[in-house]
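User: My instructor asked us to take a sequence, write out its structure as tokens, and then describe one feature of it. I'm not sure where to start. Here is the sequence I was given:
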Amino acid sequence: MKVSSINLKNSLNNKSEWYKRKLVIADRWFPSTQTCPSCGNVKKDEDKLSLSERVYKCDCGHELDRDVNAGLNLLYYGLNHINN
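Assistant: Let's start with the prediction itself. The structure tokens for your sequence are:
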């Protein structure tokens, strides 16, 4: 069964209203895999991770799995928008 993004968004919105929660949706182009959650540095075009690179490394020394890095950035994005 294929679920369209509109149906998924509506379902998430309904669930969040039901449980009295705020739904925060990051922009499609939010650079979650290219941003350091430690210092906030965003990789420039020439330094961006390719899809095959699985480890995010920042100049500040922060290093972790690409997906974990993206997850942290999305968590911080959501928390920032809930608190504002």
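For the description part of your assignment, you could build on this observation: The first helix runs from residue 5 to 18. Try explaining in your own words what that tells you about the chain.
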